[in-house]
Design a protein that fits this description.
Helices cover about 30% and strands about 20% of the residues. By secondary structure, it is α/β, with parallel strands linked by helices. The strands form four sheets. Strands 1-2-3-4-5-6-10-12-13-14-15-16-17-18 form a 14-stranded parallel sheet. Strands 7-8 form a two-stranded antiparallel ribbon. A two-stranded parallel ribbon has the order 9-11. Helix 4 runs parallel beside helix 6 and helix 9 packs parallel to helix 10. The termini are far apart.
Length: about 500
Amino acid sequence: MSTQTTVGEPLPYDVLVHISDKVYETDFASLCTLRLVSKATNEIAEPKVFASTSISFTNRPYTPSQLEAMASGTSPYSRWTTNLSIPENALIPLELADRDPLQGEERDRLLACQTEFLVPALESLQKLKSVKFDTSRRSPYEDVLSALARLPNLEVLINTNCDYHEPIPAHLEKFSSLRHIALSNIYLYPSTIAVLKRMLARSLTTLEIFALDPHQLWDPDAESYTSVKLEDLFDKGTGTSPSPSLPALRALKVTGVELAATSIPFLRSLVKLQVTSLEPYSNDVEDGFWVALEKSGVHLEHLEMAHLSPAAIKYLISYEGLRELQLGSTSFSKSDDHFAQFGPDVLSKHRKMLTRLSLSCLDVAEFRCTEKDFELIYQCVQLDTLTFGYPESSSEPETAPIIPLDLLLPRLAERLPRLRQLCIFPKPGGTHFMGMSRGAHEKIISTFVKGVCDVHFANTVPRFKLLGPKNCGPFGFDLETRRFFEVKETLPPT
């Protein structure tokens, strides 16, 4: 008896699942169409189609019907949506301004729809786990936050551009049991800190990721920004009650927030730390922080900051296991040959585990690209991703010799067999191309690209993907000529 499938015979369920998975990865629009093929394909495709959604009145004529369907509580959104995005300028402002793109009757119609259906629509998303909400002071953000705070399964709150002026919406403190909190562009008024304390207190035992990128308040008397320490965001223990801890916190990303030894009780489970300074030459991480971190046995696996102080270097060589190191996120200081200050000890200590290294924003005086520098990098044989700036030939010729590109790139391919991505770009004196004309900038880029494409790989074929400077590349590799070539982006015909 033949087992061949005939026309019209349904495919096995596992085959349909495999097909929908592939379509989901490559062509989401076709996945939506797949729902209409049959009841079986709809059952498979629908959870994927409605798993993530967004709400926006900007150039989205179907949003009113979407909100009305969501508000009914019986739509696929209620059954399947776990991720929601409300992007910038997505909602109709409550107060009309001349610059608003929507005016007149159209605005009135959409505002009435938003007023009637937005909150019920949000409340219907009972399975929602993650939301990213870009706030506008003129939008109904209080209603949105209040509705989101009532959802029982919400775990992730990413609130961007939350530039609330006083008073800060108290609805923030109604969220609880969150795993991930990210707040950006928030003004740290005393009242704001009070609300954040109450908010964080409701997620102390569940919080795994905390990111805070605030607006700093200028203190005219001190002629500096007001300082906020990490522990200022948490209630202090009183009497015999211990200070609160964050037993699940594994990742911390802060901008302009001071870290000191007194911050350690909140960070005993930390493995990822990203610190950005707002002011040139500022040091938001006290030396005592690193000492206390070492004494507490906290071993970071991912560290991102501008520069490593001697105390930070001492901490990093006290253990093994650092996997990612990124320096120079906002590099303003001029630390001559900073790489030589930490490279020999830190890279040697973590050479067996380090998989990502970025020196992208270090000045040419801080990372010189010498033979000695790269010998330290070559020992990190597990490196998967490497990023750095390559000094242009005319930069400080009197300093230590720079390894030429025709030697550097083949050696990287040979000495780092696990390297999968190399991002390299030309760098003049100074961290950025500040003060340079567009023509001079383009000339440096053009000369660099030509230098990369002239490199001949005689004895090896690079396994890594090569990325270049902004508005340039990426690069492909020609197996016949054994050279990289720039892949020019082609625009579709009009």
